[in-house]
Amino acid sequence: MTLIKKIGLFTSGSDSPGMNAAIRAVVRTAIYYGIEVAGIRRGYEGMINGDIIPMDTKSVSNIIQRGGTMLKTGSSEQFKTVEGRKLAYEQLKKNNIDALIALGGNGTFKGAKEFGEEYPDIAIVGLPCTIDNDLRGTDFTIGYDTAINTVIEAVDKIRETAESHDRLFIVEVMGRDSGMIALRTGIGVGAEAIMVPETRSDLNALFERLEKGRKDKSSKIVIVAESDEPGSAFGIGRAIQEKYPNYDTRVSVLGHIQRGGKPTCMDRVLASRLGVAAVEGLKDGHTGEMAGLIHNDIMFTPFGQSVKHLHDVNAEFIRIVEMLSL
Ligand code: F6P
């Protein structure tokens, strides 16, 4: 058991739906155990600037259902420097903070790892919050389920207009280096093809897939992860138009709507479970680790191993898209 008196809680990097539910869970669990909580606003930048506010059970009322983050977020160039991290440490000491809970993704945990190695007297536990689902040490990240549900709702609408006009749509979804959003939503919307960065995708293979499909299909949907190698959805759309001038092709980039919105029940429950686990983990002496859920069990993974990981693309998922879209 470690005696923790005051936790500094912050969100950092890109926001994700469910961050507020995790904030609520951390604050209320800490208070349950008699630990104080301070909210650090705007991530590492706020830590350096001392943008720190007290939090109590009331300050997290009515946020479980809201997207975004009440603590605001961002990235900090200054925190990447030794001097910046020293300033942050001094602010934490000044505010009597002896432990941190970091909500974020890859960049957040890289920063937390460096900080923890330089200042081991401040314990740090992380929670995986990103719509990309690209972290090792958890089967699902907080925000992913909401994002994929936002995508399928949007693409179902696109399918209706595509069907009415006999059109082919290229729909670009988020995932800077990860095709996890494209992969699941591709199955969920019954896409004719998906393109993800984890597999080598070339345009000829895409043309082949489109030709294989039933000739009498009136609409076709191709889901592309934003970072796929052949380029942006617009580039792919142009290539299809050139190759098949008869296809009436349109491009739709879903963009940041995927990052907002009410978290789904799955994300709220995941955030609540992990929020409790983070506080209890700190009490049990965990530090330098991310709390995640593997096979429905809480697991702690060192920051060094949890950072960005391209989940092995499940070959079964790709096979399902190909088989079921015939
Ligand atoms: O990492 C989350 C993410 O939403 C990626 O999927 C996307 O590429 C990126 O953030 C967009 O970042 P920004 O909001 O800074 O443009």
- What is the mean predicted local confidence, pLDDT? 94
Beta-strand percentage? 15-25%
- State the low-pLDDT regions, or none: none
Overall 3D form: elongated
Topology pattern, helix = H, strand = E: EHEHEHEHEHEHEHEHEHEEHH
State the helix count: 11
Helix content: 40-55%
Cofactors, ions, other ligands: 6-O-phosphono-beta-D-fructofuranose
User: Strands of the largest sheet, in order across it?
Assistant: 3-2-1-4-5-10-11
Largest sheet: 7 strands, mixed
Structural class: alpha/beta
Tally of DSSP β-strands:
11
Radius of gyration: 22 Å
Distance between the termini: 57 Å
Overview of this structure, please?
There is one protein chain. The chain has 326 residues and is of the alpha/beta class. Helices cover 40% and strands 19% of the residues. The chain contains eleven helices and eleven strands. The chain has helices spanning 19-32, 43-49, 82-94, 106-118, 144-165, 180-188, 203-212, 233-243, 265-283, 303-306, 315-324; strands at residues 6-11, 36-40, 52-55, 99-104, 123-128, 167-173, 193-195, 220-225, 248-253, 289-294, 297-302. A hairpin with a 2-residue loop joins β10 and β11. α1 (19-32) packs parallel to α9 (265-283) and α2 packs across α3. The protein is elongated. The protein binds 6-O-phosphono-beta-D-fructofuranose.
